[in-house]
Design a protein that fits this description.
about 425 residues, mainly alpha, Growth Hormone, Chain: A, globular, disordered C terminus
Length: about 425
């Protein structure tokens, strides 16, 4: 990797080993391990306890609901009270609620779904905290672009690696024990991220700006917070549309592989999807940063849309894997551009909440795509679902190009907030 022509590996190493960066960056990796495997782990735990797939799906689904409902509120708490308080509290409550779910409840108990919702609500906001820190740390614009590219790459690595870690833990014990260990690791990571030192003005920025507001949240948009901003609303809407094809393909890929009699190769085909995205970021990351982000983003969405058409040409699991590897090249780059745009169009006083809404947008779009794909799989088949994904990605590209002007605006602090800070 060091021999790569664009020197991205060297730039990542230089960034992630820098003073004031290395600590939060690496603690954030530890704290995010549960994010990408907990839904699967809950299904395995409920099944291990003797529950049905319906009960397992209910518990996992309620955990996701808790995340979707609670994460914006937790993030707003971060913006108002500071990173440390929230991360220390959730770093204790999260593993405690999951341990209680595993060791004190069983399928059919009323407490199990309640604890699942609670665990989702108190998931430590490590993703949003770290991404808002990247926006506030004293970095050059090209270094910030590298930071968000790292975030996109890390997502790909964790999506692939975290379930493998869960599988390794299960080899030495039960699913319940594995879930508990991962939850505790996540809690320790959140605590570390909360306690690690950053430049004083970085951690105090949110609290200082919050105290300069009206105190009732109206200066930052009331209930909807950052979504009251038209550029932020346009960006999150586009992100929802971009995530729908991902959800559709999540259903279509295993269905296609199964239809060709190669169910055992499903995981390998999925891996091609993530590997292509990571390779694309590593090879093209530097050249992308030379174009203004509000212009770069629509082009990447269009490239993503064209990539979603390639699975329509697949005739076997092997060719589908190749199509996914090639077609996924823009995905991590697109995600990095999304994060950069959030940091520029969102009010600096609400960055943690803004990044959380961006994550929620992706989750909602993915869920809509999976639900739609499930309903259409029988009548349309995998190829029909792939075609719908291509169509939805083209719609997302059209919206992204239409919103270029909005996305090129930087956030403005309302006059009332400026007056309050003087």
């Amino acid at each position: 990797m060091e021999a790569m022509p664009n020197g991205l590996a060297r730039r990542l190493f230089a960034l992630l080993t820098r003073r004031h960066v290395a600590g939060p960056a690496w603690w954030s990796v530890v704290s995010r391990l549960p994010v990408y495997l907990m839904s699967l782990a809950m299904v395995l735990v409920v099944r291990e306890q003797g529950g049905s797939y319906a009960q397992a799906g209910l518990v996992s689904g309620l955990y996701t609901v808790g995340m979707a409902l609670g994460s914006p509120l937790i993030a707003r708490w971060v913006d108002r009270r500071g990173r440390r308080t929230v991360l220390l509290a959730t770093g204790v409550l999260y593993p405690s609620s999951l341990a209680a779910l595993v060791w004190t409840t069983g399928p059919g108990d009323w407490a199990q779904p309640v604890l699942a919702v609670l665990a989702g609500v108190v998931l430590p906001p490590a993703n949003a905290c770290m991404r808002s820190l990247w926006a506030r740390l004293p970095l050059r614009d090209d270094e910030r672009d590298t930071a968000y590219l790292w975030e996109a790459l890390l997502t790909e690595v964790l999506v692939i690696g975290a379930p493998l870690m869960l599988a390794a833990l299960m080899l030495t014990g039960s699913a319940g024990r594995a879930l508990t260990v991962v939850a505790v690791i996540g809690g320790v990571g959140a605590t570390g991220l909360g306690l690690v030192r950053v430049p004083e003005d970085m951690d105090g920025a949110a609290k200082a700006e919050a105290s300069g507001g009206s105190g009732d949240g109206t200066s930052r948009g009331g209930l909807l917070g950052p979504l009251r901003s038209r550029p932020m609303l346009a960006l999150t809407g586009t992100m929802v549309l971009c995530a729908v094809p991902i959800g559709l393909m999540t259903l279509a890929i295993p269905a296609f592989v199964d239809a060709h009699g190669s169910r055992d190769s499903t995981g390998l085909v999925y891996a091609c999807w993530g590997v292509g995205s990571a390779v694309g970021a590593l090879w093209l990351g530097r050249s992308q940063s030379q174009v203004a982000v509000h212009l770069r983003f629509p082009r990447l969405v269009l490239a993503f849309a064209l990539g979603t058409a390639l699975p329509l040409l697949a005739i076997s699991p092997l060719t589908l894997g190749l199509a996914l590897a090639v077609g996924s090249v823009p995905i991590a780059l697109m995600a990095a551009s999304e994060m950069t745009l959030v940091s520029t169009v969102a009010d600096s006083r609400s960055l943690t909440e803004a990044f959380t809404w961006a994550s929620v947008a992706t989750v909602v779009g993915d869920a809509l795509g999976q639900q739609t794909g499930g309903l259409l799989m029988a009548p349309a088949g995998p190829r029909g679902v792939f075609a719908l994904g291509f169509g939805m990605a083209l719609v997302a590209a059209a919206v992204a190009f239409a919103c270029r002007g909005l996305l090129g605006r930087t956030a403005e602090v309302p006059e009332s907030a400026e007056a309050g800070g003087r």
